[in-house]
Design brief:
D-Maltodextrin-Binding Protein, domain 2; alpha/beta; globular; 300 residues; 5-stranded mixed beta sheet; 6-stranded mixed beta sheet
Length: 300
């Protein structure tokens, strides 16, 4: 009942908190072009935030997932998978989503072979970017149980190319550059999910805000959404800023990657996006991959 009342208060978008509140908020996000694009306006002081200040904390998504367990940051990006473990502390916003529209994390290798060869007991090992990443959860749904090793997301392509692992799950810009290292595509998890769900997007990451901010949450939410909108409306400026976070990407590739994960759906999950998040987590729970389906606030 207490949580229901809180969710109702969040959804009503109480805007009574004055914009002149003096407060510094810790904002955690990944050091990659799409997250940088979303938060460019805040980082570069392009929008009026009143008395609120944002201190950006750039860390890989698995580190952010784990930090969220302790409530380290006021605002943080998390994997939709990871959200299942931190929903007691954080409310999921209705914007800031990273979703794959018939594309998503890619399973790659040095040579082609069937995905069944990655199943546990077959003698092959998969490099993944983190146990609580949505990429890992989707791969488990797709393949079944497998042997894996956690590797920093930007090191996975090299590790697979060098033969340290039989295959790897790629997130971020590695999805566009793996062929440059002679790797081949075994499967696209976004394509698979779309076929499984009659065209729903694959939910990967979301923005969250700590629940203890109470009536300030709608104010924070609006500023984060305004930052996304600013980037989309001032694309050239925002892409150039984001390029510094794109490993091995030129301007055109950075723009292509950003367009994949920052678009109109990033401003609002829409009904199909919210449905997909719910279905993704429900399936994971039924398969015993997460302990429970968390509350889905979709705070505006």
């Amino acid at each position: 009942m207490r949580r229901a009342k809180l969710c109702g208060r969040l959804q009503s978008a109480v805007m009574s908190t004055p914009q002149t509140v003096e407060k510094t908020l810790l904002l955690g996000h990944s050091p990659d072009p799409d997250d940088a694009f979303m938060h460019f306006a805040l980082a570069a002081d392009r929008i009026d935030t009143g008395g609120l200040k944002f201190e950006h904390k750039l860390e890989d998504i698995e580190t952010l997932n784990r930090r969220a367990v302790h409530g380290d940051y006021d605002i943080t990006a998390v994997s939709i998978h990871g959200y299942a473990f931190v929903a007691d502390k954080y409310a999921l916003l209705n914007h800031g989503a990273s979703m794959g529209e018939d594309y998503g994390p890619r399973i790659v290798a040095r040579e082609e072979f069937g995905l069944e060869e990655l199943q546990k007991g077959r003698g092959r090992r998969l490099a993944i970017p983190g146990e609580w990443t949505s990429a890992h959860l989707a791969a488990q749904m797709r393949i079944g149980e497998y042997d894996y090793q956690i590797v920093e997301f930007d090191q996975i392509p090299n590790a697979v190319a060098e033969g340290k692992y039989d295959a790897g799950v790629l997130i971020h810009e590695g999805q566009l550059t793996f062929q440059d290292q002679g790797l081949v595509l075994l499967d696209d998890l976004g394509v698979w999910w779309g076929k499984e769900t009659d065209g729903l997007p694959l939910p990967l990451g979301g923005n969250t805000v700590r629940r203890d901010h109470g009536d300030l949450i709608p104010v924070i939410s609006k500023l984060l959404q305004d930052s996304i909108r600013y980037g989309l409306e001032n694309r050239e400026e925002a892409v150039k800023y984001s390029l510094q976070f794109g490993r091995d990407l030129d301007l055109a590739k950075a723009d292509e990657f950003i367009a994949m994960y920052v678009n109109d759906r990033t401003l609002d999950y829409r009904d199909s996006g919210r449905e997909s998040v719910k279905l993704f987590l429900e399936r994971a729970h039924k398969m015993g991959l997460i302990p429970a389906v968390p509350p889905l606030d979709f705070v505006r």
